[in-house]
Design a protein that fits this description.
The structure is a single chain. The chain is an alpha+beta fold. The chain folds into 4 domains: 3-20 and 557-586; 26-36 and 469-547, Carboxypeptidase-like, regulatory domain (Immunoglobulin-like); 56-168, Orthogonal Bundle (Penicillin Amidohydrolase, domain 1), CATH 1.10.439; 170-467, Penicillin V Acylase, Chain A (4-Layer Sandwich), CATH 3.60.60.20. It has 16 helices and 27 strands. A 10-stranded mixed beta sheet has the order 1-2-3-7-8-9-10-11-12-13, with helices on one face.
Length: 588
């Protein structure tokens, strides 16, 4: 034996023993998000911030404000920009107007608003005046649509900060704030409902709108919604709750304002948190209304498969419901009484009617075959029924108002779900234009310098991905004898969008996946030459056993590992023997 081999033998033995011991240890986990020191959980997915908040109203608010402190100023600034442009009202005035709603806000919502303000301020969020955000900033942000309705024509032109008809307004003035539809029964491919909606807003709101929040309150139903940072209601108008209700909205015009009524944001949050049926949602929304934020509220109930649209004006309203059919919505008042109340025309003279016609065309074309994928197609549609050609503009379901007038306004996302997904509160969503086309600030400024706002950012759409409330999944891997298998590799893949999560089982044979979104998953576990696969629909926290099949060479230390260990020991003894023999012979 050479000197180098004699010196290297102990190292060789030690290395072999170390490799053997590491072979059965768990590998590092894949972290999919970040728990916050103040509670809550956050991660990023395909352009969306994705957070969970839990506890009392104050705790929920504090976690919200802390996790979204970087986006809350964008929300406030965007709405300040829109309000000053449309009404000549600065944020200081908006704060004063918002204060008048405090008396209408119930105690639990007050605590959540205060929690948001405190969490955001402690993490450096400021308002447009440069001060740390406070209660009145968050209240004004939440009540902004109520404030707009109060100032707008034909509501109350005598308001103490009157509407100025000479100011440059959104182009065109006809409200373009979302495209949506809901279909069910014989209209869809599987008989279950399909609901889709896209948010239309000025592009300077991005990315403060691109958030999914999972709210677990102490009272009422769990809520999963797309939210604008700092709001206790959605502001982007998509919700689902643990009672099986799915809710979306497209905004209508303004009618008479009811001064002593309950603000729309208060009623909406209450309805989402406590309604468990189409009727209970309607009743809460109609209770003591102030007439603000008139809109079509698209509703779907996973329990009954019934869908509806509540067309809510100021005093007037209508409910259209069905278990077989297709209901379109695109800021167009279809009920004659609601239209009359807000002074809106019907038919082709209404700026949103071209989109209504297009939705009816798509309904007729695809009736009986509507799926979530068709819904994605509808939200990204560029057919202009006025020009009768592909022409992305304010007339198309995917809104591109910038192509019609230059004003940077249109679709900022796409959201589609169906009954089976909604039963686990899951949704498909896309960040950016529903069609997938980007908005590039430099290109827009070159073509429309009059709208080259300094708060615009590039909006690069991301692929559709699935989002749902977070849950915990414990996967226990066992062998054919029912014994736990430490060190098994566990891979979980969503059958919806292909998202994957990977862990290795611990000493008890369990891989604990925390904060995994609810979805339809395939679970695969492998160890040595054994493998187990299971299809699993994750609707709530769960514990799952996966049984491995196949022939294994490992048990305990593992059969193969024990064999290797014995071989190493034998080699070590032989090596030591050879070493001693050579040393003894050399000394003679």
């Amino acid at each position: 034996m050479t000197l180098q081999l004699r010196r290297g033998l102990p190292l060789l033995i030690l290395t072999g023993l170390l490799l053997l011991s590491f072979s059965d240890m768990a590998s590092a986990t894949i972290v999919t998000g970040q728990p916050a020191p103040y509670g809550g959980f956050s991660w990023e997915k395909e352009g969306f911030r994705y957070i969970q908040v839990v506890g009392t109203p104050d705790e929920i608010g504090y976690q919200h404000g802390s996790l979204l402190a970087d986006l809350v100023p964008i929300s406030i600034s965007a709405y300040a920009h829109a309000t000053e442009r449309s009404y000549g009202t600065d944020w200081g005035q908006v704060r004063i107007m918002g204060m008048t709603y405090w008396v209408n806000v119930p105690e639990d919502q007050r605590q959540e608003i205060d929690g948001i303000a405190r969490g955001a301020a402690e993490n450096g969020a400021t308002n447009p005046m440069g001060d740390l955000v406070d209660r009145w900033d968050i209240l004004a942000l939440n009540s902004i649509w109520d404030i707009w309705w109060r100032m707008d024509l034909p509501g109350n032109p005598w308001w103490w900060l009157p509407f100025d008809t000479d100011l440059p307004l959104y182009e065109p003035r006809t409200p373009h704030h979302c495209s949506a539809f809901v279909a069910t029964g014989d209209a869809t491919a599987d008989g279950g409902f399909v609901l889709g909606q896209s948010l239309w807003m000025p592009y300077f709101l991005s990315p403060a709108h691109a958030i999914f929040i999972d709210i677990i309150p102490n009272n009422g139903h769990r809520i999963f919604m797309e939210v604008t940072a700092g709001m206790i209601w959605s502001g982007t108008e998509y919700y689902t709750n643990s009672a099986g209700m799915v809710i979306a909205e497209t905004t209508l015009g303004t009618g008479p304002y009811q001064w002593l009524g309950t603000p729309s944001f208060v009623r909406l949050r209450k309805a989402v948190q406590y309604a468990d049926s189409i009727d209970s949602f309607k009743d809460i929304m109609l209770e003591d209304t102030n007439g603000a934020y008139c809109g079509d509220y698209l509703l779907a109930d996973t329990k009954t498969n019934e869908v509806a649209i509540l067309e809510l004006g100021s005093y007037e309203w209508e409910l259209k419901r069905t278990k077989n059919g297709f209901l379109p919505s695109c800021n167009y008042p279809w009920d004659p009484e609601v239209a009359k109340e807000m002074g809106a025309v019907q038919g082709w003279d209404h700026g949103c009617y071209p989109r209504w016609v297009r939705l009816e065309q798509l309904r007729d074309r695809d009736y009986g075959n509507i799926t979530v994928y068709k819904g994605m197609e509808y939200l990204g549609d560029h057919y202009d029924t006025v020009e009768e050609k592909i022409n992305p503009c304010s007339h198309t379901l995917c809104g591109h108002v910038e192509n019609a007038s230059g004003y940077p306004h249109g679709s900022l996302d796409g959201k589609v779900t169906n009954r089976s997904m909604a039963q686990r509160m899951e949704i498909w969503a896309r960040f950016g234009h529903s069609c997938g086309e980007p908005f590039i600030v430099e290109d827009h400024a070159r073509e429309h310098p009059e709208y080259a706002f300094d708060d615009l950012v590039d909006i690069i759409p991301r692929p559709y991905a699935s989002f749902a409330p977070f849950s915990n999944m414990d996967v226990k891997v066992i062998d054919g004898k029912g014994e736990p298998v430490p060190g098994a590799a566990v891979n979980i893949t969503s059958e919806i969008d292909g998202s994957t999560f990977e862990l290795v089982t611990d000493g008890g044979g369990t891989a604990s996946f925390e904060y995994i979104p609810r979805s339809d998953y395939t679970i695969n576990a492998t160890y040595d030459r054994m493998e187990g696969t299971l299809r699993w629909e994750q609707k709530e926290d769960s514990q799952i056993d996966v049984t491995l099949k196949g022939t294994s060479s490992k048990s305990g230390l593992s059969e193969g590992g024990a064999t290797i260990f014995i071989i190493i020991i034998v080699i070590a003894f032989i090596g030591v023997g050879v070493y001693l023999y050579i040393r003894k012979k050399g000394s003679k």
